[in-house]
Automatic annotation (TrEMBL):
The keyword Flavoprotein applies. Pfam families: FMN_red (PF03358). Residues 15-165 form the NADPH-dependent FMN reductase-like domain. Keywords: Flavoprotein, FMN, Oxidoreductase. The keyword Oxidoreductase applies. SUPFAM superfamilies: Flavoproteins. This is NAD(P)H-dependent oxidoreductase.
Length: 236
């Protein structure tokens, strides 16, 4: 659906999901994510679009994230988070930086997600830290993680150290990232990938959105993988 078609046909609002890895309350990581989301909504409204926002606050999911790592079992909060991300048109992912890396809570959450969940979804990457020495963490570490998940990260990343909060430059970076995200949402790229190019991706077993049904479950390899035994070789 083109931008003009969305506007003339009264399409539903874009669905933006904010993922915040902040652990304190209030959290600078959440504050940065909210500023980006607010700017996305404002810019979209200026272009005749509406954006509905949901927030995934990872500190509320900490126990379930740990359970998912060790057992692959998803609790109710994790299940809701996955559903929100699956329906999202775009994502703002904001992490605190500890010891020159995004927090373990933030990374662990994305480590347990299905590899196909975020394919082609537009994402703004953001991070906060106490010092500007961590500024490259977003592009050096976070961007590679989201590249592995095959998302469409916008060109502009957003980083805020303690001294940046009142700076004009931070506001400019937020605006650049927000307009890039709005343009990617309007393009409908993610929807086109899923409707026209899904079969061209290499999906892992159990991570293919239903396409795994094409796998031959009666083969010796699959019987062994599921705890059965291979058929004995038949002599001619």
């Amino acid at each position: 659906m083109t931008v003009q078609q969305r506007r003339t046909e009264g399409a539903q609002p874009f669905r933006l999901v904010v993922v915040s890895g902040g652990t304190s309350d209030p959290s600078s990581t959440r504050m940065l994510a909210d500023r980006i989301a607010d700017r996305v909504r404002t810019l979209a409204e200026d272009r005749g679009e509406q954006v509905a926002t949901d927030v995934i606050d990872l500190r509320e999911l900490a126990t379930e994230i740990t359970t998912a790592i060790v057992s692959q079992l998803m609790g109710p909060k994790m299940t809701r988070a996955i559903e929100l991300l699956g329906r999202a048109d775009a994502v703002v992912a904001s992490a605190p930086v500890y010891k020159a890396a995004p927090s373990g809570l933030f990374s662990s959450f994305f480590h347990v997600l299905d590899n196909d969940l975020l394919i082609a979804k537009p994402v703004v990457l953001a991070a906060t830290a106490g010092t500007a020495r961590h500024a490259l963490v977003v592009d050096d570490q976070m961007r590679s993680l989201f590249a592995y998940l095959r998302t469409m990260t916008v060109p502009t990343s957003v980083f805020a150290a303690t001294e940046d909060w009142n700076s004009k430059e931070l506001g400019e970076r937020i605006t650049r990232a927000a307009i890039e995200l709005v343009l990617l949402m309007e393009s409908g790229f993610a929807e086109q990938v899923r409707s026209e190019s899904w079969k061209h991706y290499q999906h892992e077993y159990g991570s293919a959105g239903g396409t795994e049904l094409d796998i031959d479950l009666s083969s010796d390899l699959m019987r062994l993988a599921t705890g059965g035994s291979a058929k004995p070789n038949r002599k001619a």
